[in-house]
Amino acid sequence: MNEFELIRKYFERPAKGALVGVGDDCALVRPNAGLELAMTTDTLVEGRHFAAGAEARSLGHKALAVNLSDLAAMGAAPRWALLSLALPSADEAWLAAFSGGFFALAERHGIELVGGDTVRSPLLTIGITAIGEVPAGVTMYRGSARPGDDVWVSGELGGAALALKHPEVAEAAERLHRPEPRVELGERLRGIARAAIDVSDGFAADLGHILQRSGVCAVVYYEQLPRAAALARFEASVQQACVLGGGDDYELCFTADPERRKEVEALSRELGLRLSLVGSIQKGEPRLHLYGEGGRAIEVPAGFDHFR
Ligand code: ADP
Ligand code: MG
Hints:
The chain is of the alpha+beta class.
């Protein structure tokens, strides 16, 4: 199978939302009038983001999921994706499983693959660029949190990090390998949330980005942070490390005016998704003040950094 047969067989699909999809030098798309384009790219590298021999279907899912999560954090509706694949070989079973995982998630969220690049390389590397649309004026920025805002977190934290330490815990492994991007939540938070970020590097570090960009501090109560059920049978120090410092959960952390509490709670019920109020934004140097039981201060862990 040559490069072009590979692309045609595994990655060329009709793209109704594009003027030109896979097959020409560029994809050609026309954004809807009045909408702004949100663009993001994320790369997964073998040995760094996943182990050699990782299951191909899950990789196809996750590589797209992490990009959809970025779109969700800015309230954008997914539209188009580009896929850059560096493969050690043209393994058809791998390609079928990978593209199966990719397209299953893509179809659920209405994002279409419109182009990419395919090369041979000893190290499996998957780069995806995702483009979405959002109406002007309702995007959530990292920099738009204000003193007095509530701090909210979706779903549960720490499951993915637990799977790195304890791969035998099935529900944690599911969180790590097949994260569910909070696309619908992101879109529904337009006009309700002020600032938002997706939790990819750890709750403390990611909320820290909001604080830095917004020039505010936050007070968060550890006991109010939603934690993955699978963590319950592990000791408190493991729980704390996973909940505060664990990456890869792809939940949304957002801030909103306390006047919007009823709307956030209604949204939680409607989506069947837990949304937890965990603290508040305050005036002050960009720092996270974290308190545990009895008001004792907890040291804030650093997030993941590729170059540290
Ligand atoms: P060019 O040489 O002009 O960059 P390529 O030969 O690399 O084009 O790719 C041919 C077509 O296939 C292009 O439309 C490109 O976007 C698409 N393509 C290549 N690899 C992928 C992939 N992994 N997934 C989706 N589309 C791809
Ligand atoms: Mg060309």
